[in-house]
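Table S5 (text form). Sequence records supplied for joint modeling of the two-component complex.
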Amino acid sequence: MGSGRKPFESSMSQQSVEFTASLLKADGANVEHSTEDWLKSCQLDARTHFEKCPLPTTSEEEWRFTDLTGLYKSTLTPSALDTPIDPSVVKSFLIPEASSSVVLVNGVYSPSLSTVSSAQTKIRVCNLKSALNDAQLKVSVKRRLNSLEGDGVSGFCEMNTALFKDVVVIHADSNGNSFETIHILNISTGKHTFNHPRLLLIAEEQARVCVLEDYIGIGGFGYMTNAVSELSLAAESQVIHVKLQRDDDSAYHIAHTHVGIDKGASYQNWSVSVGAVVSRHNLVTRQREDGGHIAIKGLALGHDKRIVDMHSCIEHTKPHGQSIQVHKTIAGDRSKIVFNGKVKVHKGAQQTNSSQQNRNLLLSARASVDTKPELEIFADDVKCAHGATVGQVSEDELFYLKSRGLDDDLARNLLNYAFAKEVIEDLPIKSLGAVIESYIRDQTKI
Amino acid sequence: MIIKNAATILSVHNLVASIDGTQILKGFDITVKAGEIHAIMGPNGSGKSTFSKVLAGHPSYTVDGGTLEFKGQSLMDLEPDERAKLGVFLGFQYPVEVPGVTNGSFLRLAYNTVQGARGKDELDPLEFDDFIQSKLSLLGMDASFLERSLNDGFSGGEKKRNEILQMAILEPTLAILDETDSGLDIDALRVVANGVNTLHGDSDAVVLVTHYQRLLNYIEPDFIHVVDGGRVIKTGDKSLAHELESRGYEWVLDENRSRAA
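The corresponding structure-token record, covering 707 residues in total, follows.
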């Protein structure tokens, strides 16, 4: 790791430093089962880095819209490791499409709530301990875990590495043409607690897999979720990755997703943010070899005083890469929505074809949207398109619907849903469509 | 058809309306009774389309004076959806494209909303499918129309058919069709006109807002009103349309000017 961050200089960082110290103090030891030396040292290194460098504040360019003062001022404690939870409540969040459901309570794998299909021979889903007990899998995990680097890495990644209690490991081998769906349900139950969910997905050559990374709060309040997901796609593999952030409205959700794709691989991402009081998602997708296809669709809903920040970075380092990104947001009440979409085309990444579109719908005069497309192109034979718009519900559309008998609320709701629909209509997990639709209806009421 | 002693559906008296401080309607009068078809004609910028929008309650227009009554009830303080529920329907000159809203589900939503307000039964999706089939065939539309986004990427003719389809399911007492003939080829015009003729009966009324006489060959009006400067300046029977077609509007305007002088 090494993002070139300087140790703290200003007093503005004081709060973040104190917060960092309190977390380390509160958490105490590292992973209990790190009998592995490499893992131990990896966590210790992260801890050392993290002690030296404060968490980001708004004085940093990359974080200037993500005001975490509320988080830094709060006193958090580690999540309890054995929180009782009603299985029927958990069940209501599960999806019928999943062949395996991995349930984590406060960042820790719950075998009793999870259903991991034993029929799967090509796709292995397990926690860190089981992964390390498998000699072959251990090699892959050791190679891929904590391989974060470059853009989008922040102190929160190191915090996760230093403090994670477990890792969900998904290892997919080539399995013909079928996509299996794996649901990872992260449940937070604590009041003013923190947890550090970690996901490692390794798709081998020609493997296909669909993963739903899902965050919810059941009884939790004012907690912090600090998630890190690492996905590595080998040549010709295809991964569908849906991240649904529906944490409690009082929660802080920080997530880093780092994806590396090899020759001819395809990565499709849906990132939907409908929860938390402040959420930040850094999504870095790196095309590591010739060819490869990246498709990212995002939807963020802002209501009340919520801040939703999406920083994405698509890196084309080799020729013939394709990427397409559509990010839509709806900002109501006093919410604040941020989109920073970076596309980097490295020298020599010729014939890259990239397009990015960001559309924002403002529902209230007090809501705000900050959008920043950022193109860094160092190759001369590329096609890169981008566009960003901020607008309001069209009066003409509204009048048209009302003239057919729909009242104002219904007409507005329908238009908001229609705006968001482009992002969710081709979701491969069909049952999620209705789930997300209900969030849109609830959160965009005038 | 003019019916003796028919109930008055629309009564507009001395209506004055403006947009962004500019007065467009300057004392508009019209009375429409059940069973009748009226045509409002006039040169560009005369206020024809404004009248239809004001009638439907477009928020951009301010009513500064006069009365606007539908079956004896003032429409002035009613929202567009409340007017629709009462039975006022505006067929748009430029139907709005709404990507992401499925035509079929929109039609059902509109139908059920209006039915509910009128104290009638709502239909579930299957019942609605049956109900809409006959309406679709009346307008020569196939069921694939229902799967598409509302007006999104529709041709001019498809949009206008879709307007009449909405009229067919909402069963208005008063339909104002704003330039429904514009952008239609002759075959589409026949289909749309046939749709309107089929839907029109003794207990409802139709107001056609049109620039050309062409539509009136297919939908025969009982009254023709010539509008200029935001007012009705001449009212006649259908022969007036032919006269306008052959002589243009200028003579009516001249006649009006000399009368005023």
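Note: Chain B touches chain A at residues 56-60, 79-81, 83-85, 89-90, 92, 95-96, 98-101, 106, 109-110, 113-114, 117, 149, 166, 170 (CB under 8 Å).
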